[in-house]
């Protein structure tokens, strides 16, 4: 991913926080002839100094067979809100652009075959996403035969992250007056546009490429 220096996010803690706040990612691998990709939620786990991503896909997914190859190389993509930026909003004519935030995580993937660990991963996922519901679905509420059949139809995996590239492209290269004009316009549009506007304000106020963590004192 091409990342100009003024858009680069280099703090590991900030990058991890971004991934945790935008867990629905894209796993990309290759069958040697063409790229193969699947959209899935990914869990982010720090284990000492190492960073891992965990998730699962349907076993019938053609990418499943690729992931089962020993230590296969993959790319996981995470992204936040994004929006078009019209150059008509600037003080002077310029090229239009697109504002966005994204993280690319590169690493080696290993499938998880332990039935006990697979079950625990899905239990944890259910608890995490159902925990905030008014009437949460609990593990024991799902018929055991149905759940066991489902567990046999998925491929669980973990990715040991070897490299992280991160970008917050939020008009850091524009003047204060241009930025104010852009956020004013975005505030008048949809929810995603307004989220980008809030991120732009946050970046400009702190003068650092951080949205989820604070600068160390």
Short overview:
The protein is of the alpha+beta class. The chain is built from six helices and eight strands, in the order H-E-E-E-E-H-E-E-E-H-H-E-H-H. The model has no long low-confidence stretch (mean pLDDT 93).
What is the element layout, followed by pairings?
Layout: H1 12-21, E1 24-30, E2 35-41, E3 43-47, E4 50-58, H2 62-67, E5 72-79, E6 83-85, E7 97-112, H3 115-130, H4 144-152, E8 154-169, H5 176-186, H6 191-206
Antiparallel strand pairs: 1-2, 1-5, 3-4, 4-8, 5-7, 6-7, 7-8
Structure in words:
- This protein is α+β, with helices and mostly antiparallel strands and 217 residues long.
- The chain has one domain (5-118, 155-206): Electron Transport, Fmn-binding Protein, Chain A (Pnp Oxidase, Chain A).
- 31% of the residues lie in helices and 33% in strands.
- It has helices at residues 12-21, 62-67, 115-130, 144-152, 176-186, 191-206; strands at residues 24-30, 35-41, 43-47, 50-58, 72-79, 83-85, 97-112, 154-169.
- Strands 1, 2, 3, 4, 5, 6, 7 and 8 form an eight-stranded antiparallel β-sheet that branches.
- A hairpin with a 2-residue loop joins β3 and β4 (50-58).
- α5 runs antiparallel to α6 (191-206).
- This is Protease synthase and sporulation protein PAI 2.
- Keywords: Hydrolase, Protease.
- GO terms for molecular function: peptidase activity.
- It holds the Pfam family FMN_bind_2.
